[in-house]
Amino acid sequence: FGFIFFNAKQPDVFGDPLLNELDMLGHLASLMVYQERSNVRTLLATLKSAMNMTHARDPETGNHLERMSRYARLICQGLAEQHNLDDSFVEHVYLFAPLHDLGKITIPDAVLLKPGQLDPQETTVMRAHSRAGLELVDQLLGNFGLSGVSQVEILRNIILHHHELVDGSGYPDGLIGNNIPLESRIVTVADVFDALTSERPYKQPWSNSQAFDFLQQQAGKTFDHDCVSALLNQLDEIVHIQKCFCENSYG
Questions:
Q1: What is the model's pTM?
Q2: Whole-angstrom Cα distance, residue 70 to residue 38?
Q3: Phi/psi of residue 219, each to 5°?
Q4: SS3 for 13-73, per residue?
Q5: What digits encode the pLDDT tens for the residues 37-60?
Q6: Which of 32, 71, 116, 204 is surrounded by the most beta carbons within 10 Å?
Q7: How far apart, in whole angstroms, are the C-alpha atoms of residue 29 and residue 22?
Q8: Rounded CA gap, 76 and 86, in Å?
Q9: Which are the catalytic amino acids?
């Protein structure tokens, strides 16, 4: 999926001795890229298996994950110039966003599947899923020797901090404003927007305009203002995502 190009400022420098050295360096570089790619695939396959077990119990659908991960990528792309985000950051947020609720695998059915509002004790149990997800990821990374995978901190931040709110009222750490990692703020907005516009056992879906109004009202209060603007400025792409991953009677 790429190539390595060697250049020189002086002519006629690529003699046999140098070419032998460059050949070795080129192979080492390609092996490093291959190993990284292989590690990422192993990590994603492992986490996806755990995620599938979670969502076999969770009432949220697979299409929710497809939509919200694509909303997260839209937000990243909208913020790329302002925050100097490279392609690697954007794609890793897209890959890791569906894993945000991984810790729900530890939540008892009586809480996870409750159709009505949670009481204070149940809320405390549910909120534990953020730290539980981080612990699970760290165990998997250690067990599979994947702690050195690049951008793994993005995954850890998304799982731990996707319920933080910019006014400090979120959990688990009550972080405020820019103290919340950018990738976490991005996933929060993407997740909330899809939750608002999706049907749940306890609510009817909001229209896009209703969800937009709510996000704009809360921008800078509970949600990151720039993330909200980056999403709402891409209405055509949002509608396209919703059409591609709409819910129906077959799931």
A1: 0.82
A2: 23
A3: -65, 130
A4: CCCHHHHHHHHHHHHHHHHHHHHHHHHHHHHHHHHHHHHHHHHHHCCCCHHHHHHHHHHHH
A5: 787 778 778 777 776 766 666 656
A6: 71
A7: 10
A8: 9
A9: 104
CA pair distance 187, 97, nearest whole angstrom: 6
- By three-state DSSP, how is residue 89 classified? helix
Q: What stretches in the chain show pLDDT beneath 50?
A: 251
Helix (H, G, I), strand (E, B) or coil at 103: helix
**Confidence at residue 144, expressed as pLDDT on a 0 to 100 scale:** 76
pLDDT at 42: 80
State the pLDDT at residue 151.
Answer: 83
Residue holding tokens 């490093």? Answer: 32
Note the pLDDT of residue 114. Answer: 85
H/E stretch holding 94 reads helix 87-96
Counting beta carbons within 10 angstroms of the beta carbon of residue 36, is it exposed (0 to 12), middle (13 to 18) or buried (19 or more)?
middle
State residue 57's pLDDT score: 63
Q: Could you write out the DSSP letters of every residue in 189-249?
A: HHHHHHHHTS-BTTBPPPPHHHHHHHHHHHBTTTB-HHHHHHHHT-HHHHHHHHHHT---T
Give the length of the chain: 251
Q: How many whole angstroms separate alpha carbon 65 and alpha carbon 163? A: 16
pLDDT per residue as tens digits for the range 10-24 = 999 998 888 888 988
